Design the sequence.
């Protein structure tokens, strides 16, 4: 059916702010079916205590928001009396930063989303931080997706983790070569039209097409992410052919607006979704977005000139977006001029949900237990301090851990730890505040991701093939010349099977004789292939450690089951008690 005529500017503003007057809408409303769409995005595991400030419009007073228990209460109140309410997420539900979910591999977040009654979610880029097998574990409770089986914790009800009660979808996350979707691309929800009749509402989902270039969710092989507009339009046509007239796109890609604007403003919107909106078929009646953590509530013209909601509800449970669709009771078509969208703040002036408070307290207790779990012992301090040659005991150990972990599920000849990835030492003294029953004991909290590594939620460990001359180039790149001619030495840590010397009397770029580089005791061969392992962000330019480019063209890249933090933790555990590695991997010519 053709779309309804384009709205006037005045009516557009009224719809945007949810201020349609009953006198103007009473007659159309009588012949329509209301559908309430409630959405959150980029929760990132913030189901516990968390506060932030937001404002509804530019210049309005700030409001204090946040916390999963308050979010649950607001959702209950918004759903009250609604016969057709659908709650969903635009992605990045887990791979969160709070320790109470991160240290349990985000299973607590899934428990929370089950508790609040999430109906479905789009796959965000962070849902893929540990690959598709881990996502399937989160969906189905498979207890698979980590090489160490550190999964399926007991939840706050006393049951073992059983997976999500809702589904994850993505239309543009496809398998290489076949382009077949990895998970279901779209689905249909049926709403009550009265008199025993049901009307369909279709949802098409996409994941940001840049997922493979994100350092945490880097996916070098097996899966690719197509540009979003094509799959959305293709599946929208399929839905129309199936008789679905109301269609919503849930897009884990974002946009924003002018700085200082409020969460219900639409001030000079810009970003990928603004361009996507111009490409997405007018058959799509609303676009719900995420990924940018932006707070914005727009009506933008579709390619046919008809306004449709394009919204984003911030992150970490600060906001809830509500879109009210009115379906023609006879055809199921969305009556566009009756569409209303508003972002609601998750304010803390309502009673927190007691069930969620209990759940949060449970995971806080488990967090304390896990934090104080001994995982290894060390016989001496492992520090980031460099010796005269540029070596550090903790960096050397980290490179050894990378090689050990990379070889657990693939081939690797050597590994490298780049500068500045470590934020603290591993000491022989008892951790402050911990039971001091034995010096040298290392607790889980001392090695957890975000504690030792300067990379919050953990960067993937990736393998790639390079020529020997590229390894020589990588070693040479430790000496970096600035525009003013000064030279900075930024030492790399290679795994213990690598040895080389360097001559500071020679020019930058020629300080290492390739013939003096040894790998497993054998000379480096310039044209031979070597499989090197390191953190994913050093294989591509976007997030690489500055000054190191030699791995950008590494071939046949694939990802280990371990992240960087896992590698150091499990390596220390496997080798306990651990001493500092012997120095001598790199040495100046005397």
Sequence:
């Amino acid at each position: 059916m053709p779309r309804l005529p384009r709205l006037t500017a005045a009516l557009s503003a009224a719809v945007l702010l949810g201020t349609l007057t009953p006198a103007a809408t009473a007659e159309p409303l009588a012949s329509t079916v209301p559908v309430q769409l409630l959405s959150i995005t980029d929760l990132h595991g913030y189901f516990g205590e968390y506060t932030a400030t937001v404002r509804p419009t530019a210049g309005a007073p700030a409001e204090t928001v946040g916390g999963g228990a308050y979010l649950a209460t607001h959702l209950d109140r918004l759903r009250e009396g609604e016969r057709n309410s659908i709650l969903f997420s635009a992605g990045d539900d887990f791979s969160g930063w709070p320790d109470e979910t991160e240290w349990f591999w985000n299973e607590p977040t899934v428990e929370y989303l089950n508790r609040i009654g999430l109906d479905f979610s789009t796959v965000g880029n962070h849902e893929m931080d540990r690959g598709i097998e881990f996502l399937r574990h989160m969906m189905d409770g498979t207890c698979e997706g980590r090489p160490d089986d550190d999964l399926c914790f007991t939840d706050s009800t006393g049951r073992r983790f059983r997976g999500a009660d809702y589904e994850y979808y993505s239309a543009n996350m496809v398998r290489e070569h076949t382009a077949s979707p990895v998970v279901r691309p779209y689905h249909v929800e049926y709403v009550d039209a009265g008199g025993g009749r049901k009307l369909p509402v279709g949802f098409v989902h996409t994941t940001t097409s840049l997922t493979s270039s994100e350092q945490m969710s880097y996916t070098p092989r097996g899966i690719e992410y197509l540009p979003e507009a094509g799959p959305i339009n293709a599946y929208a046509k399929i839905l129309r052919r199936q008789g679905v007239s109301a269609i919503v796109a849930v897009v884990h890609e974002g946009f924003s607006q002018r700085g200082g604007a409020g969460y219900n403003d639409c001030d000079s919107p810009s970003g990928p979704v603004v361009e996507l909106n111009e490409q997405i078929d007018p058959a799509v009646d609303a676009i719900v977005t995420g990924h940018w953590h932006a707070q914005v509530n727009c009506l933008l013209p579709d390619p046919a000139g008809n306004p449709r909601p394009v919204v984003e509800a911030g992150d970490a449970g600060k906001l809830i977006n509500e879109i009210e669709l009115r379906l023609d009771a006879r055809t199921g078509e969305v009556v566009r001029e009756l569409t209303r969208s508003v972002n609601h703040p998750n304010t803390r002036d309502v009673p927190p949900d007691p069930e969620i408070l209990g759940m949060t307290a449970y995971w806080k207790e488990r967090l304390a237990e896990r934090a104080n779990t001994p995982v290894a012992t060390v016989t001496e301090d492992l520090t980031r301090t460099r010796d005269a040659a540029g070596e550090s005991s903790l960096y050397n150990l980290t490179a050894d851990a990378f090689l050990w972990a990379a070889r657990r599920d693939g081939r690797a000849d050597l590994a490298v730890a780049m500068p500045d990835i470590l934020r603290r030492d591993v000491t022989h003294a008892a951790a402050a505040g911990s039971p001091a029953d034995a010096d040298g004991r290392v607790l889980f909290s001392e090695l957890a991701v975000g504690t030792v590594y300067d990379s919050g939620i953990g960067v993937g460990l990736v393998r790639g093939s390079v020529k020997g001359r590229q390894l020589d180039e990588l070693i040479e790149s430790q000496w970096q010349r600035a525009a003013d001619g000064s030279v900075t030495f930024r030492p790399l840590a290679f795994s213990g099977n690598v040895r080389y010397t360097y001559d500071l009397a020679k020019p930058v770029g020629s300080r290492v004789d390739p013939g003096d580089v040894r790998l497993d005791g054998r000379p480096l061969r310039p044209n031979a292939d070597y499989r090197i392992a390191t953190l994913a962000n050093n294989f591509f330019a976007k997030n690489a450690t500055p000054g190191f480019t030699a791995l950008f063209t590494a071939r046949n890249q694939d990802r280990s089951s371990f992240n960087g933090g896992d590698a150091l933790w499990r390596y220390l555990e496997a080798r306990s008690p651990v001493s500092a590695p012997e120095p001598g991997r790199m040495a100046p010519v005397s």
